[in-house]
């Protein structure tokens, strides 16, 4: 049975597709479009049931991200980032979890790597920093930034309770956005730099993704945060690539390449390219969903993700993303000159998929980590 969120994504899809040029030109999602998506629950898919989450499984959440990305890459990307961030609701103590993610209209985002500095103070932390790639942060209701706790000399220094690298949640009013997002693809994600200067973060309004771990025990908290983030990115890339295949099919039936009496569809090279693209993308997508579902079933049974499960998920996510970028590039090449125009959805898919594949969490070097573990070599798995 199709989950209501996936049905909602499909219903909204045509209207989203019609606004792709507007989204790209604006450089961020239009406020009214965010407000249309917000009631579906797509931005907070990984909030647990006790905080009013929408009740999807891990694989369903990825299918929703993929569907939104099919209609517009930037929309799918922003949904994926926000949904992944909402998993951290299970890492927040009360009352912060409910305050930040309990509202059906809540949207989280940010940058997890510790680019900020946090100084211990009465009642919490004072945070200063500048973070990159703040996808969708302009429409977020809470914005997170990874930090290192530092002493009076500015050098890393754990608090007495051993707090060292929190992902702190700040209010949008405390954040300055810096317009750095002038890019080749995923231009509508609004992935600007953002800055905080001496912002007070109340005690406990942070997640410790590794050292401290979750404070709620549920299927989402037993699933790897980094693994889900990688799969969210991969899902957006797969949706973009699937769109590129469909766009080429539509184009090929009508286009006759210059100097040819046959349509593009009648060319054997086009037929083979389409078939290979479908096979590669479908195989990569199935591999990832299978790895995620197996891990999710274990999480439902009370089992935290194992290193091997995390390895397989990260391998599958990197493979799916790189495959999606290759497929979108193949469709661009196969389309010929018609795809070079800004009006062509195929060129947008090509650019969006290429940028998605640059994300550090799915970059080709992740295959090295997966390979090291498979070979039994000593490997740091802290961010697996």
* Overall form: globular
Percent in strands: 5-15%
**The CATH top-level class label of the largest domain:** Mainly Alpha
> Which bin fits the share of residues in helices?
40-55%
Number of helices: 12
The overall number of domains is 3
H-E string: HHHHHHEEEEEEEHHHHHH
Biggest sheet statistics = 7 strands, mixed
CATH superfamily of the largest domain: Butyryl-CoA Dehydrogenase, subunit A, domain 3
Helix-strand makeup class: alpha+beta
Overall residue-averaged pLDDT value: 96
The value of Rg in angstroms is 21 Å
Give the low-confidence spans. none
Distance between the amino and carboxyl termini: 32 Å
Number of strands: 7
Task: Order the strands across the largest sheet as they lie in space.
Answer: 5-6-2-1-3-4-7
User: What is the CATH architecture descriptor of the largest domain?
Assistant: Up-down Bundle
How would you portray this structure in words?
The chain is of the alpha+beta class. The chain has three domains: 4-91, Acyl-CoA dehydrogenase/oxidase, N-terminal domain (Butyryl-Coa Dehydrogenase, subunit A, domain 1); 108-207, Butyryl-CoA Dehydrogenase, subunit A, domain 2; 223-374, Up-down Bundle (Butyryl-CoA Dehydrogenase, subunit A, domain 3). The protein is built from twelve helices and seven strands. It has helices at residues 4-17, 20-26, 31-37, 58-71, 73-86, 96-101, 219-222, 225-252, 268-300, 307-335, 345-356, 365-374, and strands at residues 108-121, 124-134, 142-150, 167-170, 176-178, 192-202, 206-207. The chain has a seven-stranded mixed sheet. β1 and β2 form a beta hairpin. α4 runs antiparallel to α5. The longest helix is centred in the last third of the chain and has 33 residues, at 268-300. The model has no long low-confidence stretch (mean pLDDT 96).
């Amino acid at each position: 049975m199709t989950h209501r969120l996936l049905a909602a994504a499909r219903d909204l899809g045509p209207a989203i597709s019609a606004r792709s040029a507007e989204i790209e030109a604006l450089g961020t999602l239009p406020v009214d479009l965010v407000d249309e998506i917000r009631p579906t629950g797509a931005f907070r898919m990984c909030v647990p049931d006790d905080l009013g989450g929408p009740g999807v499984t891990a694989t369903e959440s990825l299918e929703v991200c993929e569907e939104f990305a099919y209609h517009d890459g930037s929309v799918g990307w922003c949904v994926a980032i926000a949904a992944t961030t909402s998993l951290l609701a299970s890492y927040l103590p009360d009352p912060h979890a409910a305050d930040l993610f309990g509202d059906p209209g809540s949207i989280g985002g940010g940058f997890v790597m510790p680019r900020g500095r946090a100084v211990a103070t009465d009642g919490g932390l004072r945070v200063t920093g500048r973070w990159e790639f703040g996808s969708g942060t302009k429409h977020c209701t809470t914005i997170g930034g990874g930090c290192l706790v530092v002493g009076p000399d500015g050098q890393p220094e754990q608090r007495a309770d051993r707090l060292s690298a929190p992902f702190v949640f700040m209010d949008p009013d405390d954040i300055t956005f810096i317009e750095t997002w002038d890019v080749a693809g995923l231009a509508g994600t609004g992935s600007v730099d953002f800055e905080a200067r001496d912002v007070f973060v109340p005690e406990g309004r942070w997640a410790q993704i590794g050292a401290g771990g979750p404070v709620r025990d549920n299927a989402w908290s037993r699933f790897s945060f980094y693994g889900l983030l990688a799969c969210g990115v991969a899902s957006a890339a797969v949706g973009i690539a699937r769109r590129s295949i469909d766009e080429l099919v539509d184009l090929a039936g009508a286009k006759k390449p210059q100097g040819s009496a046959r349509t593009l569809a009648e060319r054997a090279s086009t037929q083979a390219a389409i078939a290979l693209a479908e096979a590669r993308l479908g195989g990569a997508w199935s591999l990832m969903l299978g790895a995620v579902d197996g891990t999710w079933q274990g999480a439902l049974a009370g089992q935290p993700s194992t290193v091997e499960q995390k390895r397989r998920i990260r391998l599958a996510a990197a493979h799916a993303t790189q495959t999606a970028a290759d497929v979108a590039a193949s469709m661009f090449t196969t389309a010929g000159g018609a795809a070079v125009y800004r009006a062509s959805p195929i060129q947008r898919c090509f650019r969006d998929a290429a940028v998605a594949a640059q994300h550090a969490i799915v970059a080709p070097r992740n295959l090295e980590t997966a390979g090291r573990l498979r070979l039994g070599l000593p490997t740091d798995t802290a961010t697996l």
